[in-house]
Design a protein that fits this description.
By secondary structure, the protein is an all-alpha fold. It contains 21 helices and no strands. It is globular.
Length: 378
């Protein structure tokens, strides 16, 4: 009897799962007072309708995203009602593409060169996860971000540094937080880690950095750090990020900066919020006249960024880039001012890379306990 874990069966099941949820969502939206479609999806589609009319997406109150998202969803404004679900289908397809990238990384030498069946089992944590499928088919755009993040990791492991910079710049423009991966990737890109894309060290890469002597000066250390790959990543990511922002600012002016970036610095949202700051944010929102001049929503970034963008990369990035990105994302989400179920997808997409060598798998009782506690806490 053939194993279920073949490429065709796993990906066909992943697609069927999302199709089933999409159909169920249409039925629930039609006949139930409690709608399946996420409220954010109506925000997205309203903004897309404004764009289709030549107006700004920021005319839609509470649209706090890049205009790229509204542009992608313009077909939802087309006359046939079936087009309204275009965005959900797009997000579901993004889930599948992210799963394909996960499989590619795990099968590559830099990802451990897993046998196909074992790689598919771990990829299924994302592909066959009903939580992932539900969130995307309800109309959350996190699947698009998942593709960008996993494509970024794939490009780095393949030593496609310019492409990695493009994905990093695009992801940060799309959702700010992936900038935390920049320090980890830069720290990871030692000459000793650079190869030809198949996990083999390249002589040209290793010679691109001068190796300091036994007592290197500060200048030697700086020159050693600034190898070709690190410089290329910085330039390509900054150019991508800058070009996208300049374009959007030229079209939408100050509202683009305010709603896409600045708003999140002072955001207070205590609804549906798992954040440890939830109660304090609730009090700040309910009694603004009693809030001190030292505002929590501005200071909350300090421990969050210190842990996720500095300490974790320095401690782990040279050992395991994918595991470091998972730890960074988990810390970022845990200490974020706003934390909803959609944010869990930010680190779930990286979980298949961590688990193969994790004690959660080596000790099944520990793994099951962690899963039950995580699910039960929600």
């Amino acid at each position: 009897m053939s194993s279920f874990f073949s490429t065709g069966k796993v990906f066909s099941s992943a697609i069927a799962l999302r199709v089933a949820f999409l159909i169920y969502g249409l039925i629930q939206d039609e006949y139930s007072a409690v709608k399946y479609t996420d409220i954010d999806y109506f925000v997205f589609t309203d903004a897309a309708r404004y764009v289709s009319q030549g107006r700004s997406p920021y005319e839609r109150e509470t649209y706090r995203y890049t205009p790229l998202l509204a542009w992608l969803l313009v077909p939802t404004a087309w006359p046939n009602p079936l087009w309204f679900s275009f965005g959900k289908v797009l997000f579901a397809i993004a889930d599948i593409v992210a799963g394909w990238f996960i499989l590619r990384i795990q099968r590559s030498p830099s990802g451990g060169a897993m046998p196909m069946e074992r790689a598919l089992k771990y990829a299924s944590i994302w592909l066959l996860n009903p939580m992932v499928a539900t969130i995307s088919t309800r109309g959350s755009s996190e699947g698009l971000l998942g593709v960008m993040v996993v494509a970024l990791l794939w490009a780095v492991t393949r030593r496609q540094i310019v492409l990695a910079g493009f994905f990093l710049g695009l992801a940060v423009h799309f959702k700010i937080y992936p900038f935390i991966y920049g320090p980890s990737i830069l720290w990871y890109l030692e000459s000793s880690n650079l190869g030809d894309g198949d996990g083999k060290r390249s002589s040209s890469s290793s010679s691109s950095t001068s190796i300091p002597g036994p007592n290197p000066s500060l200048q030697d250390r700086i020159l050693s750090f600034l190898n070709r790959s690190r410089i290329t990543l910085c330039i390509s990511s900054l150019v991508t990020f800058a070009c996208l922002n300049i374009l959007m600012y030229a079209i939408y002016s100050t509202p683009f900066l305010q709603h896409t970036f600045f708003y999140h610095l002072t955001r207070i949202d205590h609804r549906h919020n798992f954040s440890p700051y939830n109660t304090l944010l609730h009090l700040s929102s309910a009694m603004p006249e009693q809030v001190s001049s030292l505002r929590l929503e501005s200071l909350a970034f300090l421990p969050q960024l210190l842990i996720s963008a500095v300490l974790i990369p320095l401690a782990l990035a040279k050992k395991d880039l994918a595991g470091t990105m998972l730890a960074q994302t988990f810390a970022f989400v845990a200490f974020n001012k706003v934390c909803t179920s959609q944010y869990f997808l930010w680190y779930l997409v990286l979980l298949p890379f961590y688990l193969p060598n994790s004690s959660l798998v080596a000790r099944p009782r520990r793994g099951v306990t962690a899963l039950v506690l995580w699910a039960g806490a929600q």
